[in-house]
Automatic annotation (TrEMBL):
The keyword Membrane does not apply. Residues 34-57 are annotated as: Disordered. It is found in: Cell envelope. Residues 1-35 form the signal peptide. Keywords: Signal. This is Substrate-binding domain-containing protein. Residues 34-43 have a biased composition (Low complexity).
Length: 353
């Protein structure tokens, strides 16, 4: 793909932010005397919450997610398991991943009957899992809802989400900067979306359109795939056959991007700047190799963050990096742009497609 890796300033991140929310900060120093260095004394004010990473009372957390039939979902599950291993005071009970809402409901019923201390749930279908999540909450078990929202505020103590609309904003804002940088004027912009029936796809597209409108651009050609390699290749092939020249392409999902990239290579088309979405290791390697312009992160750490939050809730702790001592009701993670300038920073978070 044509890249602009030689241009330093305009390729910087268009949206800055951390991938995850830092949960445990070190406790304030308890010394009553300043160090003999001439530096100001450490803040010894007692905090309402602190030292959250130090072992506490052992808690049992139930985790249920969908079947890992997609690189991002596999990364969600593995990151959650790895995070639980970091804490000696977490006993994690993991339900078998499934795409069947009825099976997942059964898993949550088991967690309720076992009396776990908290549940982290990435539902196969938020609406379908709402009732059982409410039952868990009514049983006194805090539920941490991950990625796909329930249809009732009563179904979760805390919800942690990626920012789908923000992904579109980030991709569109970065596209605008590339258009200005390269003097494209009225650029020909194509969008390869995921499944159009999903709200997350609609949010990503809306954010992209809104960001482009801010710089006087719009999407000239929009097609939709199905978040799979095969659909990505077929959809991208049809797009390239229909449109002889394109300036920028944004593909919503780096898993389907494997097929999209194959279609580009098969058609021997590289006149455009290629932006991806989600943050796969493949995409980050392509960026490093100059075959892709950027990708927009959709953090695969959401369930891992959910494990941390569930631990705090079950132990009756707050967040030591907030003045408000309670765990927030809702956390939306950032959607930063990964480019050649910062790809090494984000590569460890890349998931294999």
């Amino acid at each position: 793909m044509r890249t602009t890796s030689g241009r330093p300033a305009a390729r910087l991140l268009t949206r800055l932010g951390l991938v995850t929310i830092a949960i445990g900060l070190a406790a304030a120093c308890t010394s009553n005397a300043p160090a003999d260095t001439g530096a100001p004394a450490a803040d010894t004010t007692e905090r309402a919450a602190g030292a959250n990473d130090e072992p506490g009372e052992t808690v049992v957390i139930g985790f249920s997610g969908p079947q890992a039939d997609h690189g991002w979902l596999a990364a969600i599950n593995s990151a959650a398991l790895a995070e639980a291993e970091e804490y000696s005071d977490i006993e994690l009970r993991v339900a078998e991943g499934t795409n069947d809402p009825s099976a997942q409901i059964s898993h949550i019923e088991t967690f309720i009957n076992e009396g776990v201390d908290a549940i982290v749930l990435l539902p196969t279908d938020g609406a379908a899992l709402t009732r059982i999540a409410i039952e868990a909450m009514e049983a006194g078990i805090p539920v941490v809802n991950v990625d796909r929202e329930f249809s009732s505020e009563f179904a979760a103590r805390t919800t942690i989400l990626g920012d789908n609309y923000g992904m579109g904003i980030s991709a569109g804002t970065h596209a605008c900067s590339l258009i200005e940088e390269n003097g494209m004027g009225d650029a020909v912009i194509a969008e390869i979306a995921g499944m159009d029936s999903l709200p997350l796809t609609q949010d990503r597209s809306q954010g992209f359109a809104d960001a482009l409108e801010a710089c006087g651009q719009d999407v000239d050609h929009r097609v939709a795939a199905e978040f799979t390699v095969e659909s990505g290749e077929a959809t991208a092939s049809n797009l390239l056959q229909a449109v002889p020249e394109i300036d920028i392409i944004w593909n919503h999902d780096d898993d389907q991007g494997v097929g999209v990239k194959a279609a580009f290579d098969n058609a021997n088309r590289d006149e455009f700047l290629f932006i991806g979405g989600a943050g796969s290791a493949n995409a980050m390697r392509w960026i490093r190799e100059g075959e892709m312009e950027a990708t927009v992160l959709y953090p695969p750490t959401q369930a891992a963050d959910g494990i941390r939050l569930a631990r705090l809730l079950a132990q009756g702790k707050g967040m030591s990096d907030l003045v408000q001592v309670e765990v927030p009701r809702r956390i939306v993670l950032d959607a930063p742009v990964v480019t050649a300038e910062n790809v090494e920073q984000y590569l460890p978070l890349g998931f294999e497609s």
